[in-house]
From TrEMBL:
Residues 218-277, 283-340 form the CBS domain. This is Putative hemolysin. Its main location: membrane. It comes from the Bacteria. PANTHER family: HLYC_CORC FAMILY TRANSPORTER, UPF0053 PROTEIN YRKA. One of its GO terms (cellular component) is plasma membrane. It is found in: Cell membrane.
Length: 434
């Protein structure tokens, strides 16, 4: 092999590497996350130009494809026309018929260039660009912009042709990529190795809470303390004196006729400023009503936009289902918020250790119960732990009733009327009994 052949091989390799630079630039740009693009925009005028290139896929993809195609064409054409003929004498010398030697040399040269192009012009550059996409974009983005400026007429022709074909097949020529679904975002969060456990849990809880309806988080009507509209202020104060809440719904004829709510401060008017005929109805403020099918995030947005601290939750028939407060909704994202009026164990002690039982309130949400005991006992047909027990029993629960769900033994400790008040949850050793 003479020196000219080596020079030709070197030129072929240069063409392959040029194609690799374009391929690396493309991979670096298309794998940039939105946060990285914003970081580029905040990096001065040069960064803003690079971000503009990233946000215009037609421009940079067309420029990249022109570069890759031209580099590939030159490497194949130059190698086939200059190096392949140099291989013919060697093939003839080893017994290949002269008529077939030229064809065989061209095929061999094409396969060699294809191998070099795949390894050094595609796989290696793209692998490196994926691992350092922001750095590659900063280094190679500007040369790509200059190249795109030079071949702008060709890019315009290619972009116009591409948009026309995309519209012809029913696509959106102005969309850069398909939007990520909530499931894909959740999988991305759960699989991100650099995210610490606590932030990961918070983000996961946000997604879970966003899918819950108000029936899952509200305080049911049986647990709500109502005030009758016709009570005097003294009667109302006597009624709420020992209650831990500060706001109370005001009812007219019954609990399905809620006319507003009062704050305990409203009831503490000085005797000199109130009349004997003043009733709770006269002090009632307007209460926001939300359907029980509404999800947590929209409900929180409504409370914020209406500047309301609580809302009445109503069913599809207009009856009162329960009450939900801003605190109830926020707790779905950040966990329980304890104050001086809250009762129960400290949240740090709520997780059951192996072999221990856990006593919970019957109104505890089944999803929260699943989190506490480390087993999935959720049921689409019920919302609370007490409801889960009665669903399995097929009747109203009594103290001492026991059911097994998902390897957990749920024992009714006490009932309050028709409602399950307290439950003991214990892990079952071995398979659950039928």
């Amino acid at each position: 092999m003479d020196s000219q052949t080596l020079v030709n091989l070197l030129l072929v390799m240069v063409f392959v590497l040029v194609g690799g630079v374009f391929a690396a630039t493309e991979m670096a740009i298309v794998t940039l996350r939105e946060g990285q693009v914003r970081a580029l925009e905040e990096g001065g005028e040069r960064g803003q130009r690079l971000a503009g290139l990233v946000r215009n896929p037609n421009q940079f993809l067309s420029a990249v494809q022109i570069g890759v195609t031209v580099a590939g064409f030159f490497s194949s054409a130059y190698g086939g026309s200059t190096i392949a003929p140099d291989l013919v004498p060697g093939l003839v010398a080893v017994g290949v018929p002269e008529a077939a030697a030229a064809t065989l040399a061209l095929v061999a040269m094409t396969l060699l260039i294809a191998y070099l192009s795949l390894v050094f012009g595609e796989l290696v550059p793209k692998r490196l660009a994926m691992q350092n996409n922001l750095a590659f974009t900063r280094v190679l983005g500007r040369p790509l912009q200059l190249f795109a400026t030079v071949v702008r007429p060709v890019i315009w022709l290619l972009s116009a042709s591409t948009n026309a074909v995309v519209r012809l097949v029913g696509g959106n020529s102005s969309a850069s990529e398909e939007e990520m679904t909530p499931e894909e975002i959740r999988d991305l969060i759960e699989g991100h190795q650099g995210l610490r456990p606590y932030p990961r849990r918070i983000l996961t809880d946000v997604f879970r809470a966003g899918e819950r309806s108000l029936t899952r988080v509200m305080r049911p009507r049986t647990d709500v303390q109502f005030l009758e509209a016709d009570l005097t202020l003294d009667q109302a104060l006597e009624h709420v004196r020992d209650l831990p809440h500060s706001r109370f719904p005001v009812t007219g004829t019954d609990v399905d006729d809620v006319v507003g709510f009062v704050h305990i401060r409203d009831l503490l008017l000085p005797p000199s400023t109130r009349e004997d005929t003043t009733r709770v109805r006269d002090l009632a403020r307007t209460i926001l009503a939300l359907p029980d099918s509404l999800e947590v995030l929209p409900a929180l947005s409504r409370l914020r936009s209406e500047q309301q601290p609580l809302a009445l939750v109503v069913d599809e028939y207009g009856g009162t289902s329960g009450l939900v407060t801003t605190e109830d909704l926020v707790e779905e994202f950040v966990g329980e918020i304890y104050d001086e009026h809250d009762t129960g164990s400290d949240p740090e002690d709520a997780t059951r250790r192996s072999g221990e039982s856990l006593v919970v309130d019957g109104s505890l949400n089944v999803e929260e119960l699943s989190d506490l005991i480390g087993a999935d006992v959720s049921d689409e047909d019920v919302d609370t732990a007490g409801g889960l027990v009665m669903s399995r029993l097929g009747r109203l629960a009594r103290a001492g009733d026991v059911v097994e769900v998902a390897g957990q033994r749920l024992e009714v400790l006490s009932v309050d009327g028709r409602r399950v008040a307290r439950l003991r949850v214990t892990a079952v050793e071995g398979p659950p009994r039928p």
